[in-house]
């Protein structure tokens, strides 16, 4: 039997038992009255998390499929898009845009630094023919929070639409979609919504629909085309709300998690992540670690920690897994071996998990003959 690891990875995280148990529900049809009741409730709960009245679609697939859907639906081949790039997932947005034959204007910041609104304003003045801006809210590869509210204001001042990768931010930090004017916002079930991989969610504003309807869209496929999903929602929405079969048990699990988040209050849910992040950052600093990202723009969802000279990141990761059954994340791309990442998703934000992780890091340091006082990592708990 496979050993259960305690997940402190950037995602997915360990979810609550009742969410897992929901997955064992007998399989339902993805249409008909019983399903529509479940589907409509899930959409209503999602709108409370997104804080939006925009259209929301529940789409099978990984989050990258939703970014593909958003960018490919809003723009036609040959049109221009500005893409925010300050990490691995910003680079992926560029790759998606280029895959549709779009002209990409990179909007960059160094690794570990946030995107800047004044740079974006200048780029939009230099490229008035750009149709939209796409960027990552929380760049999980570096754990930088980009200043989305400020960036969205700049985009709207220029009369453009904004597409946001909110995969690891929605439900973990403040992100009021309607208040901030986010035209397309995409996220996944397996991050801060604390459910399982396999399904994602995308909200679409009226401004976004104007872009979708401004070109033929024929070159942009069928399945990941927002027109297709709108057509079925409009024509079959009373009994069969999607163009394809949906992962019904995954959605039941999402509904279970969303019910708990909403009933407990979204603000309390966000505060849980903030507390976990503070505990890890404070505890590891007290053990002599240095954070990769300054507190003022650090994510509360995932913490990036710099490697130390006394040992390799891979050694720490392997020891935690082998000796304490704890999994952490490493650095991606050029950050591989230079940082490790600690996720605070799901159970990883609980006091029990946090104590196990922090004590385990203490034990590893002592294993390496690095003297630390017992309990030194618990200063933030």
The top-level CATH class of the largest domain is: Alpha Beta
* CATH hierarchy: architecture of the largest domain: 3-Layer(aba) Sandwich
Strand content bin: 15-25%
Please state the overall shape, judged from the principal axes of the Cα atoms.
globular
The main sheet comes to:
7 strands, mixed
Unreliable runs: none
Average the pLDDT over all residues and give the rounded result. Answer: 96
Under CATH, the homologous superfamily of the largest domain reads Type I PLP-dependent aspartate aminotransferase-like (Major domain)
Backbone CA Rg: 21 Å
Total domain modules: 2
CATH fold field value of the largest domain: Aspartate Aminotransferase, domain 2
Distinct helical segment count: 13
| SSE-based structural type | alpha/beta
| Biggest sheet, spatial arrangement of strands | 2-10-9-8-5-3-4
Number of strands: 13
Spell the H/E element sequence: EHHEHEHEHEEEHEHEEHHHHEHEEH
- End-to-end Cα distance: 34 Å
What helical percentage do the residues reach? 40-55%
Describe the SSE topology.
Elements: E1 6-8, H1 17-22, H2 33-50, E2 55-60, H3 63-74, E3 80-85, H4 88-99, E4 103-108, H5 117-126, E5 130-136, E6 138-139, E7 144-145, H6 148-157, E8 161-165, H7 177-180, E9 184-188, E10 199-204, H8 206-212, H9 226-236, H10 248-264, H11 266-286, E11 302-306, H12 313-324, E12 326-330, E13 339-343, H13 351-367
Parallel strand pairs: 1-12, 3-4, 3-5, 5-8, 8-9
Antiparallel strand pairs: 2-10, 6-7, 9-10, 11-13, 12-13
């Amino acid at each position: 039997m496979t050993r259960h690891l305690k997940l402190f990875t950037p995602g997915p995280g360990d979810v609550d038992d009742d969410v897992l148990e929901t997955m064992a529900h007998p399989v339902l049809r993805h249409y008909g009255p019983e399903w529509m009741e479940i589907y409509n409730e899930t959409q209503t709960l999602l709108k409370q998390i997104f804080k939006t009245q925009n259209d929301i679609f529940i789409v099978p697939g990984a989050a990258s499929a939703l970014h593909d859907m958003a960018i490919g639906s809003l723009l036609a081949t040959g049109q221009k898009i500005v893409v925010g790039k300050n990490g691995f997932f910003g680079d992926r947005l560029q790759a998606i845009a280029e895959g549709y034959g779009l002209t990409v204007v990179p909007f960059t910041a160094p690794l570990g630094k946030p995107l800047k609104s004044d740079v974006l304003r200048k780029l939009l003045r230099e490229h008035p023919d750009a149709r939209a801006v796409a960027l990552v809210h929380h760049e999980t590869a570096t754990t930088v929070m980009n200043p989305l509210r400020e960036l969205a204001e700049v985009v709207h001042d220029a009369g453009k639409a904004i597409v946001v990768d909110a995969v690891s931010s929605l439900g973990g930090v403040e992100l009021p979609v309607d208040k901030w004017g986010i035209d397309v916002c995409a996220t996944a079930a397996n991050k801060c919504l604390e459910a399982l991989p396999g399904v994602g969610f995308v909200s679409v504003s009226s401004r976004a629909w104007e872009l979708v309807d401004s070109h033929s869209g024929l070159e942009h496929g069928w399945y990941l085309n927002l027109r297709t999903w709108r057509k079925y929602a409009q024509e079959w929405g009373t009994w069969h709300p999607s163009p394809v079969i949906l992962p019904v048990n995954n959605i039941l699990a999402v509904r279970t998690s969303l019910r708990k988040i909403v009933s407990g209050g979204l603000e309390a849910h966000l505060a849980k992540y903030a507390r976990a992040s503070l505990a890890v950052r404070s505890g590891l600093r007290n053990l002599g670690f240095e954070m990769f990202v300054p507190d003022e723009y650090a994510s509360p969802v995932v913490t990036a920690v710099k490697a130390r000279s006394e040992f390799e990141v891979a050694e720490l990761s392997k020891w935690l897994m082998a000796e304490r059954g704890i999994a952490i994340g490493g650095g991606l791309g050029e950050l591989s071996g230079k940082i490790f990442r600690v996720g605070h998703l799901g159970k990883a934000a609980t006091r029990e998990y946090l104590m196990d992780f922090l004590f385990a890091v203490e034990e590893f340091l002592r294993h390496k003959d690095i003297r630390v006082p017992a309990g030194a990592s618990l200063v933030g708990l």
